Amino acid sequence: MKSEDPQLLRKIIHIDMDAFYASVEQRDFPEYRGKALVVGGPPEGRGVVATASYEARKFGVKSAMTSRKAQQLCPHAIFVYPRFAAYKEASQKIREIFRRYTDLIEPLSLDEAYLDVTEDKLGIGSAIAIAQEIKQAIKDELQLTASAGVSINKFIAKIASDMNKPDGLTFIGPSKIEKFVENLPVEKFFGVGKVTAEKMKRQGLHTGLDLKQLSEQRMIQLFGKTGKFFYHIVRGVDNRPVQAHQDIKSISAEDTFSYDLDKGEELNEWLDKIARSAYKRLQNHQVFGRTLTLKIKFGDFKQITRSTSFATPILELEQVLEIAKSLLEQADFDGKKVRLIGVGFSNFGEARTKNNTTGYQTSLFDL
User: What parts of the sequence cross the membrane (predicted)?
Assistant: First the structure.
């Protein structure tokens, strides 16, 4: 860690809830405990797995897998629809526990967040001790388990939290980081998806040690702007701060139909429901965008979007419904049927309430 200034070393914790949605269901409904549970749409339609209990994961069931595939892998699995209100309530209580120790909290989703405890509120001093206390509080107060990763930066802490799931706690200190990163498969690196991983492997790059042999210039030649980031991250250097607040960039709602729809009255009815759902989310967060986007995915999986923007925020539901319907009427279906439709809002600018009086900012943890 020669390139990291010891004076700037942070104490970062990454908390990742264990099979969060499924764990909330098993907590709230005792009949699901110890069972293979899948949270998502039913296998009879076009359901997708949101998450699965560890009992189901043993059979290869994973998030984002189709429910039909999940049922094939685990025929005895129980399928339940998500209850997002329950998950949001649990995540808010988890965040209240975080706040006992620090205000530097960067939520990534309902079930995971970074915490900077370099200066913790209670003066505990040890990031490991804080992580242990947080995990225990979540277990005692919410009857849920979390895994934690502790290190000097976000990249290492996030990888560490995934190493001993469920209910794990992994610390990777400064002296261990260099060797740890060298042994990491390229797929584990932040920003390396399937396509980039395959590209790396075609270049004979399989581990952090392989990447480390490349110069910064060569990294940029191969991977563009992210090459510079890879060059530093492979050396365990990640100076990204924990950001306590993040502006909302967009809010949307969408639905996949159980069967493909023609352009007509039924599709208009669905559009009305989805637009109302998106508008309700705007109201919940009291932000109103200037741009409305209609998303259409056809039966052949091809997708189009149509947007329209205004000088002032779209405030009224009637406006939303009228604009969405107009965009749908203008869209060229080319004789295709529709598989999915969505309505989204963006371009919040200085996001304002409907009363147009105060600026408003919310955390992604609350979405």
Answer: none
- Residue 67 sits in a domain of what CATH number? 3.40.1170.60
- Together in a domain, 271 and 362: yes
Q: Which structure tokens are listed for 61?
A: 């069931």
Residue 165 covered by a domain = no
Cβ proximity of 31 and 13 under 8 Å: no
Angle between helices 216-223 and 194-202 (to 10 degrees): 120
Distances (CA, A) of 205 to 162, 195, 294: 23, 13, 41
Q: How far is CA 328 from CA 270, 295, 296, 331, in A?
A: 12, 9, 9, 5
CATH number of residue 352's parent domain: 3.30.1490.100
Q: List the beta bridge partners of residue 34.
A: none
262 labelled binding-site residue: no
180 pLDDT more than 50: yes
Look up the domain containing 273 and give its range: 250-366
**Residue 55 pLDDT exceeds 70:** yes
Mean pLDDT, residues 266-283: 89
Q: Is 255 annotated as a binding residue?
A: no
Q: Are residues 224 and 254 in the same domain?
A: no
> Quick one: 326 and 225 in the same domain?
no
pLDDT higher than 80, residue 134? yes
In a domain, 213, yes or no: yes
Selected residue with higher pLDDT from 357 and 183: 183
Domain count, the chain: 3
The verdict on whether 141 is a catalytic residue reads no
Q: State the Cα–Cα distance between residues 348 and 286, nearest whole angstrom.
A: 11
pLDDT number for residue 4? 47
Asked, for residue 242, whether it belongs to a domain, the answer is: no
Asked if the model's pLDDT at residue 301 lies above 90, the reply is no
Q: For residues 62 and 69, what is the distance between their CA atoms, to the nearest angstrom? A: 10
Tell me the sheet residues that pair with 52.
38
Give me the catalytic one of 112, 198, 316, 329: 112
When the pLDDT of each residue in the chain is averaged and rounded to a whole number, the result is: 86
Cβ atoms 20, 111 nearer than 8 A: yes
Q: Is residue 81 predicted with pLDDT exceeding 80?
A: yes
One domain, residues 283 and 337: yes
